[in-house]
Amino acid sequence: MTEYSLMPGYSIMPPIAPKPIIYNIGNEYVLLINILAVVLSVLAMVYWARLYKRLYKSDRREIRGWSWLAVAVLGLLLFNVSSIYMVFLTSPIYEMMQVIGRTIIAISMTIGAYLIYSPMKKGMLYKFVPVTPVTEKESSSKSVLTEIVRKGHSYLIDEEKPLRSNEIFVNLVTHGSQGLYITRRYPKDVREDYNLKLTPIIWLTREKTEESHVDPTDIVELSHTIKEFIKKTTDGVVFLDGVEYLITQNDYKEILKFIQSINDSIVTSNSRLIVPLDHSTVDDQQFHLLMREMKTLEAGIRGLS
Question: How far apart are alpha carbons 172 and 157 in whole angstroms?
């Protein structure tokens, strides 16, 4: 290279022109793989968003957990987008390996999110106790209570022992309604006391038993069991006994959210929800929060026959 001297002892180097970017066929493959990774990351974000909306999130830790998974997918998306720029600068072997690695991660996240979300669309993701709505006793005449305990409404009955609420439930299921009985009591005792031969009964217990049962801490399974029943019946009534027990086994806020979720399903259905609760077992604020979600029904209601 020729040097130009202006003064004795000094020389100036001519400006060096930037080297042109060498673009070869290898860059094309890297670019295509990066674009594929970006597309897959976008799909993963879409499915994670849909999945998150459909999930029954029981507490804040679970919400944070799913949020961090979404952040991971978003971070991968941004990483892949930025990598496209690097393709035009250099494409050594290690860069190709990194791109392939990120693509594999994107593919696995997309497939994982789809596999979780797809069965959820069919209502088969979470386990639930299969319940077949049946009528305890066919009746040509409707109970007068159908005008008081109406479809699409949830009712809270304040009583020390669920005597009157049980009478209301039995009256409805022996006049053509299909019932689901959820209780802390042993199912055989309930059947004997109220002569319920066909009505499905869910026992709230931690014990492993042949009886249809749900762990009181598994609010998700209990929620889906009730909702599946509501979907199947055309004239249903759900009796939820043992709310006090559920509160002792879980956090009160979690049970309140559970009641709110069930109430939302009841409102748009042909079913009713009856919840007996002794006011003295919860504080006033907790009781009034439940009252805001449901209609209150007097224990001395008339019309039973």
Answer: 16
